[in-house]
Specification:
Distance between the termini: 55 Å
Largest sheet: 7 strands, parallel
CATH class of one domain: Alpha Beta
Number of helices: 13
Low-confidence stretches: none
CATH topology of one domain: Rossmann fold
Helix content: 40-55%
Strand order of the largest sheet: 3-2-1-4-5-6-10
CATH architecture of one domain: 3-Layer(aba) Sandwich
Length: 356
């Protein structure tokens, strides 16, 4: 028995692979293109582990995907592979269209052919689980009800639009061809191995380097924060018991404005790694021009997942963020290795010229 994980060297995918193999001996085939956010160092603890087979490749490479399916006969495919950063999608949307839409289409086509050729019992047991985002639902006003699985899609960025398209393709392949699919739409993840272009790791890394902590606009954009290991447990549960063709929203029940997140990170760093001048890290906060089309609020209603499958997050935001900050403090070598010249160029491109 085996599973195929796409995008398994990225932030959420790598955490899922590590979490899966901590609890199971089932073989994991890990297909990752190793773009800027894919990092084999995330999986270094699996070096020499025969339960983990890494394949460097693209979900859009139909011949490669078809070969892997024939060779390893996976009982399930978990699709984490995606371009996922809103700011990058604003500067360069084409990569998002290519990976999130065209790549998902080609992956679905290969999987459909593989699934149709399976024996009836294997067909019945097979699952294709597509990992998506709450951003496909658009933006909420402060007093609006949280996103449910039936909320209208209203994507507002090239990233979220490309993910919405991929969600629709997955749904269509179930309703048209009968492919046994599951879709999860998650809120903002945080935790170990998070690439430091995203809010929480960027604040930690910049604070420790004595740099400014850039906060978009007034910092009152609200997100629901989900500890990545809780997300992994939710995906395992959906894979095991989710109803075919259904969508499950995964959230942490932690709605917080971005500025509060930054203040929390600063306070933890004041406690765990004080500045040498004994001044608070909050002094480094710098308000910068907001990004175009910045959604004001996301919120996930995860009651369907709890009521149907009995899943709830294990971490509060307070416990999860402490673990996250401590992980970055304990893994400065990982941070240094990932901060390549291309990463520094990106940070400069995105934040340069944003006036305070």
């Amino acid at each position: 028995m085996s599973i195929l994980v796409t995008g398994g060297a990225g932030f959420i995918g790598a955490n899922f692979v590590l979490d899966w193999l901590a609890q199971s001996d089932e073989l994991v085939i890990n297909l990752d293109k190793l773009t800027y956010a894919g990092n084999l160092e995330n999986l270094s603890s699996l070096d020499g582990d025969k339960r983990h087979v890494f394949v460097h490749g693209d979900i859009g490479d139909s011949a490669l995907v078809e070969r892997l399916l024939v060779e390893y006969q996976p009982r399930a495919i978990l699709n984490f592979a995606a371009e996922s950063h809103v700011d990058r999608s604003i500067h360069g949307p084409e990569d998002f269209i290519e990976t999130n839409i065209v790549g998902t289409f080609r992956l679905l086509e290969a999987v459909r052919a593989y699934w149709k050729a399976l024996e009836p019992a294997a067909q019945q047991a097979f699952r294709f689980l597509h990992v998506s985002t709450d951003e496909v639902y658009g933006s909420l006003a402060k007093d609006e009800a949280a996103f449910s699985e039936t909320h209208q899609y209203e994507p507002n960025s090239p990233y979220s639009a490309s993910k919405a398209a991929s969600d629709h393709l997955v749904r269509a392949y179930h309703h048209t061809y009968g492919l046994p699919v599951l879709t999860t739409n998650c809120s903002n993840n945080y935790g170990p191995h998070h690439f430091p272009e995203k809010l929480i790791p960027l604040m930690i890394v910049n604070a420790l380097a004595g740099k400014g902590l850039p906060v978009y606009g007034d910092g009152q954009q609200i997100r629901d924060w989900l500890y990545v290991k809780d997300h992994c447990s939710a995906i395992r549960r959906v894979l095991a018991a989710g109803r075919v063709g259904e969508v499950y929203n995964v959230g942490g029940w932690n709605e917080k404005p971005n500025l509060e997140i930054v203040h929390t990170v600063c306070a933890l760093l004041d406690e765990l790694r004080p500045r040498t001048d004994a001044q608070p890290y909050q002094q480094q906060i710098a308000y910068v021009t907001d990004r175009p089309g910045h959604d004001r609020r996301y919120a996930i209603d995860a009651r369907k997942l709890e009521l149907e499958l009995g899943w709830k997050p294990a971490e509060t935001f307070e416990t999860g963020i402490r673990k996250t900050v401590q992980w970055y403090l304990d893994n400065q070598g990982w941070v240094s290795n990932i901060q390549s010249g291309s990463y520094r160029d990106w940070v400069e491109k995105n934040y340069a010229g944003r006036t305070a």
